[in-house]
Amino acid sequence: LLFLWSITVSIFGIGGLLGSSGSRYLTVKYGKRKCLLCSNLLMIVAASIMGCSKITQSFEMILIGRFMCGISAGLCVPLHHQYVGEISPRKLRGFANSTSSFFWSLGKVVGQISGQRELLGSQSLWPMLMASCGLPALVQLVTLPFFPESPPYLLMHKGDQEGCKKAIRQLWGEGHHQADIDDIMKEKATMKNTKILSVLELMKEPAFRWQLCMIVILTATVQLCGISAV
Asked: Are residues 23 and 117 in the same domain?
């Protein structure tokens, strides 16, 4: 039982590793909005599987659902920051990016409170608790199709200047947005002369070794500080 409990908890992180590793390739090929929509579908399927695990008396369904949740979270967490930042006007970009972290933390708090035995953590209601992750995914799945694709993605990766202008007008309203389009074009020109490193190349690059070590140490100490135990 201890082994199964440990696997159930940790398999979310394994799925997250796989999802985040493939996020760059998928976003370049299919776009951020489509990837977010697919991530929401995956989360809804995972929530349905976990919600039905008690009825079918199958702990394997919890393992599968947690793994799928991890893949969805690993894919959408970096995408949310990128997409929200890219569709926001320049004046609100910093604020919009900070809201992602705020709601990420708020979601953890709501999950911890909802998981108390007095609420959804009881013996009869825990399947609803595990299936509740599908609710925000469903909200985003319904509302996201009304948003356009990221303007920088349309211009930099698809070369669709008209589509970029249309998306900017839809997001920011009618007006003179040529300065923003020029900024995207400058970024595109800069990227042509910059080599995009893979994860393995990043780990081997001496110039980024200290920065990478600092990030690994900080991330590890957050996990070791007792927050998960609490």
From this structure: yes
Angle CA(33)–CA(68)–CA(40) in degrees, nearest 5?
Answer: 25
Pick the closest to residue 100 from 116, 117, 77, 72 (CA basis). Answer: 77
Name the token pair of 75.
Answer: 């894919």
Instruction: Kindly state whether residues 44 and 119 are assigned to the same domain.
Output: yes
User: Given 85, 118, 147, which residue is the final one in a domain?
Assistant: 147
Chain centroid to CA 132: 17
Residue type, 116: Q
- Number of folded domains in the chain? 2
What residues make up the domain containing 111? Answer: 1-147
- DSSP letter string, 181-229: HHHHHHHHHHHHTSPPPPHHHHHH-GGGHHHHHHHHHHHHHHHHTTTTT
Residue 198, classed as helix, strand or coil, is coil
Contact 57, 176 (CB under 8 A): no
Residues, the chain: 230
Q: Tens digit of pLDDT per residue, the chain (230 long)?
A: 889 888 988 899 999 989 888 888 888 888 888 889 999 999 999 999 999 988 988 888 999 999 999 999 998 888 888 888 888 887 888 888 888 888 888 888 888 898 898 888 888 888 899 899 899 999 999 999 898 888 888 877 777 778 888 888 888 777 776 777 777 777 776 776 667 777 788 888 888 889 989 988 988 888 787 766 66
Question: pTM for the complete prediction?
Answer: 0.80
| Cα–Cα distance, 51 to 58 (Å, whole number) | 11
Q: Given CA atoms 71, 72, 75, 81 in this order, what sign does their dihedral have?
A: negative
